[in-house]
Amino acid sequence: MTTRRDFLQIAAATATLLPGGWTRAFAQQRLTQGELLAFEPLGNVTLVHISDIHGQLLPIHFREPSVNLGAGEAKGLPPHVTGKALLDLYGIAPGSAAAHALTPDDFTALARTYGRMGGLDRIATIVKAIRAERGERVLLLDGGDTWQNSYTSLVSKGQDMVDCMKLLEPDAMVGHWEFTLGADRVKEIVDDLGFKFLGQNIRDAEWNEPAFEPVAMFERGGVKIAVIGQAFPYTPIANPRWMMPNWSFGIREEDVQANVDKARKEGAELVVLLSHNGFDVDRKLAGRVKGIDVILTAHTHDALPEPVRVGKTLLVASGSHGKFVSRLDLDVRRGEVAGFRYKLIPVFADAIAADAAMAGAIKTARALHEPMLREVVGRADTLLYRRGNFNGTLDDLICEALLSERDAEIALSPGFRWGATLLPGEDITREDVFNATAMTYPAAYRTTMTGARLKEILEDVADNLFNPDPYYQQGGDMVRVGGLAYAIDIAQPLGRRIFDLRLMRNGEPLEASKEYTVTGWASVNEGTEGPAIWDVVMAHIAKKKVVAPKDVSQVRVVGG
Amino acid sequence: MSSEVSRRQALGLGAGILAIAVAGRAQPAQAAKNDAAELIKAFAGGKEPARSKVKLDLPEIAENGNTVPMTVSVESPMTPQSYVTDIMVVADGNPRAGVVTFHFTPASGVAEANTRIRLAETQNVIAVARMNDGSVHMASKEVKVTIGGCGG
After folding, report:
1. pTM for the full predicted model
2. Which of A16-30, A427-441, B2-16 holds the top average pLDDT?
C-alpha cells in the first residue's frame, strides 16, 4: 500500500518529469488548444484513456466532490483529497483552470469563466492530434460507462454512443452501465463493435466459463502490449441482476494474476489492466497482483493530475463525463517501463476545436430529439450538483420531487456519481433532467418500510462505501435521503455507522417497528412499479417554476 | 466424495432464513450467532487449526445470497501416505452453522470440491480440513450479502 508520504515523494518526483504538465500550463490561466495538448513526447508507447462518459456527447459542467472520504488505509490519500487540500498537494493555483476542473471551489464563478468541459467532438480532436503526433505508438482505451445515462443513449439503447465512439476507433473497452441495456442488447452491440469488449471477470453464471474475451494483445511502437479487461465487479449487485441473469462478475483477483502471467509468457512487454473496479479496489489489487505495469482506473470518477504509483504499477484516473483525456507516454525497454510522462488533458470545450466528423455524427444522433430536449421546464436559482459522498442539491431536488409527487414521508435516491451540474440562473431543460436520471429501470416506487428496514438500507449502502477493505466496496456514493435526517460515523463497522435517524417533518426519532411511507427510484428489483423518475422530476419543476435547493445537508458526519 | 449435509439440506435450511435475517441484521457482526465455534472445535478434536494449505474461493460480495458459488481445496499430494480425509465448511452467521462436509480418500486424486451455498447475511465462511496424519488446517473468508442497488 502506498503511504501518503510515498505518494508525496512520487508527486514531487513526477512534477519534475512533466515539462508540459499542469502546473505551468495553467499558472498563466491561458486556455489554448496548443497549451492544453502540449506534451513533450517520450518513449515508444502512448496510452490514451477515457472513461465514464455516461452518454454525454456534448460539453457539460460537472462539479467534482467537496466530500470524498477514504475508508481504512485510503483515508487521506488521493483520490480522497478534495478542494484546497488537492490544490496544495499538486501545487495548483486557486482560481486557475486546473483548479476549476479538479475541485468544486468557487464553482459557479469559475464555470462562467472557463466554460463547459467535454464533448465527444473535442475529445476526437485531441485523439486525432495525439495520433498525428505519435502514429502507430498509440493505444486508445475506453474504461466503460459509455453507452448509458443520457436521453439519446437511453432511447437508442446505446446506439448513439456506439456510433460516435466507432469514429474514435478505440482499441478496446470494458463495461458496467453498458450491461443495464440487458444481456441481449450488449451481445448484439459487441458482435458488431469493431473493437474489443473485454471482461476477464465475467463468467457464465451456470458453468463458470468466460463470457467475454479476457485479454487483447496489441503491438504498438514495436512493443507487445497485453490489455486485460476488468468489468465493474459488482454490476449484478449494484444494478439489476435480472437484466444479466446468466452472467456472474466479481473481482477474481487470482484470475487477474493468471492472465498477467499468461500474457507475460506469451511475450507481452507491457501489461495494462483496463479496469472498471474503482480506484481504491485497483490500488489494493496493484499491491497484490504482480506484473501489471499500468492500471487505467475508472468507475469512481476520480480525476488525478498525476499517476499514483503502487510498487511498479502506475494507476491513472481520468475523471468522468468527457471532462478529461489521459495521455501516458511510456518508454518500454526489455519488458519494463523505463520512464513515463503523463498528462490529464482537461477538455475545455471553448478552447478545443470540435472535430467536424464527430460533430456531424453527434448532430445526426440528436437531430430527432433536439427540439424536445431543449424544452424548458423551469429554472434553477442555486447550483444543482450531485457528486459528493452524502448529498447534492440535484438529489435534494429529486427527493423533494419524489416526496411531493408521490406523497410520501421519506424519499431515497441512489448515490450515482453521474449527472451534469447546472449553474444558478440557468433554465432547466428536459435534457438536464434526463442527464441526471436517464437509465433503464427508472420506476419511482411508493411503498412502506419500517424504521428498522430504513436503517438497515442506510447501513448496507454505507458499508458499500466505507468498508475499510476496498474489495467489499461498490463505488457509489451514499444513498440520498429526503424527509429524513441521520448521523453517520464512517469508521464504525457494519450495523453501527448510522444513528440518530429523525423525520425532518417533526424532528421525531424514527421508530424501529413503525411503518413509514417511502418513495424512491432505481430499485434493482424486477417488476418495480411507478412513473419514470424523469416524469416525476419534470412535473415537480413545472409546478414550482423556480427551484432553489439550499446546500444544507441533513446528514451529520461524525468521527471519520 | 460424499456429503454429510447434503446440498438439499443446505438449501433446505433457507426457508426460514430471510425473516430471521431481517431481525438479525441490527446486531453487531462479531457476536456469536450459532454453534460454528463448537462445530470447529469438535471437528478439529480440540486442536488449533493452522491457517495454511486450505484455499477457500468465494466472492467478496455475493451476487445472490441464496446460491453463492464456493470452491474449497487443500494442498495435498493425495497419496496413501499423505491425504486429506475431510473438509468441513461452516458459516458463522446462518441460523445453523453447518453447511457441508466433504470426505476424501487417496483415490479422490485432488482435495477439491465446489458447490453453491446459502448465506442469510454478511458473515464468515470457514473451511477446516483434516489430514490423515491428524493435522488440521483452515481458511476463512467474509462474504457480504447486501441489499444492493445504489452503486455506480
Report:
1. 0.91
2. A427-441
Q: What is the second-level CATH architecture of the domain A4-25+44-364? A: 4-Layer Sandwich (3.60)
Which residues does residue A233 pair with via DSSP β-bridges, in sequence order?
none
Residue A453 and residue A457: Cα distance in Å, rounded? 6
Compare CB distances from B151 to A464, A467, A471 and report the shortest one's residue: A464
Q: Is B59–A250 a contact, with Cβ atoms under 8 angstroms apart?
A: yes
Which residues neighbour A97 within 8 Å (Cβ) at sequence distance 6 or greater? A26, A29, A31, A114, A346, A348
| Closest-CA residue to B117 (of B1, B5, B2) | B5
Cβ burial of A246 (10 Å; 0-12, 13-18, 19+) is exposed
Q: How many angstroms away from the CA of A477 is the closest CA of chain B?
A: 7
Domains of chain B in start order, with CATH, are 7-26+34-143 (2.60.40.2470)
Residue A217 phi, psi (nearest 5) = -105, 135
Q: Does A7 touch chain B (CB under 8 A)?
A: no
Q: Per the CB < 8 Å rule, is B152 touching A248?
A: no
Contact: A453, B27; criterion CB under 8 Å: no
Query: How far are the Cα atoms of A448, A518, A520 from residue A486, in angstroms, in the given order?
Result: 19, 16, 17
8-state DSSP, A414: -
Domain boundaries, chain A: 4-25+44-364, 374-558
Beta-strand (E) ranges in A405-537?
Answer: 410-413, 427-429, 445-450, 480-482, 484-489, 498-503, 515-520
Do A473 and A280 contact (CB within 8 A), yes or no?
yes
List the beta bridge partners of residue A230. Answer: A275
* Chain-chain contact of B151 with A239 (C-beta, under 8 angstroms): yes
State the Cα–Cα distance between residues A110 and A97, nearest whole angstrom: 8
Q: Kindly report, residue by residue over A219-252, the tens digit of the pLDDT.
A: 999 999 999 999 999 999 999 999 999 999 999 9
Kindly list the residues from chain B whose CB atom is less than 8 angstroms away from the CB atom of residue A284.
Answer: none
CA distance A347 to A420: 15
Q: Does domain A374-558 have CATH number 3.40.50.2000?
A: no
Chain mean position to CA A211: 24
Cβ–Cβ gap B150/A495 under 8 Å: no
Average pLDDT over residues A169-198: 98
CB contact under 8 A, A418 and B148: no
Cβ separation A456–B60 shorter than 8 A: no
At A294-335, the pLDDT tens digits run: 999 999 999 999 999 999 999 999 999 999 999 999 999 999
Tell if the CB–CB gap between B151 and A455 is shorter than 8 Å: no
Q: Which of B99, B8, B59 is nearest to A203 (CA)?
A: B59
Which residues in chain B touch residue A471, judged by CB atoms under 8 angstroms apart?
60
- Per the listing, cell 492472465 goes with A259
Chain B hits for A277, CB-CB cut-off 8 Å, are: none
Measured distance CA(A285)–CA(A274) in Å, rounded: 13
Cβ atoms of A170 and A141 closer than 8 Å: yes
Tell whether A137 is within 8 A of chain B (Cβ). no
Distance from CA of B86 to the nearest CA of A (A): 25
Nearest to A238 among B28, B29, B151 (CB): B151
Q: What is the pLDDT of residue B148?
A: 60
Is B59's Cβ below 8 Å from some Cβ in A? yes
Across chain A, mean pLDDT equals 94
Other Cβ atoms closer than 10 A to A525: 13
